[in-house]
Amino acid sequence: MTLDTFKAKMVIDKTYKISEINPRIYGSFIEQLGRAVYGGIYEPTHSTADEDGFRRDVIELVKELQVPIIRYPGGNMVSAYNWEDGIGPKELRPNRLELAWRSLETNEVGTNEFVSWAKKVNAEVMMAVNLGTRGIDAARNLVEYCNHPGGTYWSNLRRDHGFKEPHQIKVWCLGNEMDGPWQIGRKTAYEYGRLAAETAKAMKLVDPTIELVSCGSSGSGMPTFPEWEAETLDHTYEYADYISLHQYYGNRDNDTANYLASSLDMDNFIKTVIATCDYIKAKKRSKKTMYLSFDEWNVWYHSNDQDTKIEPWSVSPPLLEDIYTFEDAILVGSMLNTLLKHSDRVKMACMAQLVNVIAPIMTETGGGVWKQTIFYPYYYTSVYGRGAALHSIVDSPKYDSKDYTDVPYLDQSVIFNEENDELVIFAVNRNMENQLLVDVDIRSFEGYKLVEHVVLENENPKAVNSVEHQQVKPHTSNNSYIENGTLIAVLPKMSWNMLRLKKN
Ligand code: AHR
């Protein structure tokens, strides 16, 4: 193909609105796992540690990402977790065998510490309850401990522990991946649906203002998907406000063209869950719309082999420490675009996870902090992807790969921030050989000027960052321009881009 073949067209109009974007779509996740907490966010002996033992250097990077909500404490870990182990005087807290990751949990950090840390990074907490080994009582007591003002056993205990004001945690997950055979206390859809509904009922009796997430499948590849969603929602529809989706991708066959198309699978997953929710809505003659919480998404595969070599029962072992490549960052950009294009139904999402464990932020225990390749699309989309998501009409050349047909080279999302008079386009060029010239008809944005074109590109799809060296980092481009009401966007081969336009 000649260079000329690689041209695409977009039409953007401010009246083609998908939805206001819920900022919670830029959430993340910290599990008591590996070095996420100990040696990640918490390291009392570190030179930057604050009065509570939290690393200030990590706090600064999390704040840079503007993460509005953070899921805690798991993940697989929550399915055998006794939250009572993590409250009260630290010297009295038990060491426990943590079964999900076969590590030793000291419980030095628990509910109150995490809530305090979340405040420091300006995030709200999304709290998960244990529906694996426990149930209604443990969950309702935790809501009482966290959210009841005082005058009862559990709320007074919180006050005794130094937290006079309730934590006011709004979002609660009803367990984690309860369909997964690896889960401690795995359930059938019927068992989970009944338990989740009764637990939800009790939790909302304690605090009717909370929002609840019913467990969806732990991935679109699960054999029980989407029957799991249909059967569990049949029980939880009345009580839950969201259903969860989890999905991770990896370039296991070293087929980059196919890998970069994985966001099409994510798109299909979301569409199927929406259809299943709406089927239950119709079946129940309900007026309520179920929203989606994509509360685990990312790339995860680099560390799989090395994790099998880690000895069990150590404290904060280096588990799930994927070192991300440039191509991973491109896919992460497309996954964010996919979430934004579904922002009418996806109201929350969590990049899994945030620090050290399949994370955009890495630390050296006792040393520095650094940004993985995937930090960058996450950062720009979180900071500039605020406002309303717009539909755009796209005409792009396409390709076929091993698992996908008609994959558009151009992948994009469009955001109109009316308050700031800003139009932002996030665009991926999946073409590994050629740049893509995109003619963008910006008919309803008269007077808007291109203020910056940020590009993430690299000659080597496998390029990575490290504490010493940021090989993969964005730069600005001067190649794009506006001419007669059309934005000519020049997207380098295999690149992630942000084009930001502003009214004078
Ligand atoms: O994020 C890592 C793990 O992935 C989580 O603990 C679990 O929920 C999922 O399988």
UniProtKB/TrEMBL annotation:
Gene3D superfamilies from the UniProt entry: Glycosidases, Golgi alpha-mannosidase II
Keywords, in A-Z order: Carbohydrate metabolism, Glycosidase, Hydrolase
Protein's GO biological process: L-arabinose metabolic process; polysaccharide catabolic process
Protein name as catalogued: non-reducing end alpha-L-arabinofuranosidase
GO molecular function, one term: alpha-L-arabinofuranosidase activity
Cross-referenced Pfam families: Alpha-L-AF_C, ASD1_dom
Catalytic activity, reaction form: Hydrolysis of terminal non-reducing alpha-L-arabinofuranoside residues in alpha-L-arabinosides
Assigned protein family: Belongs to the glycosyl hydrolase 51 family.
EC number: 3.2.1.55
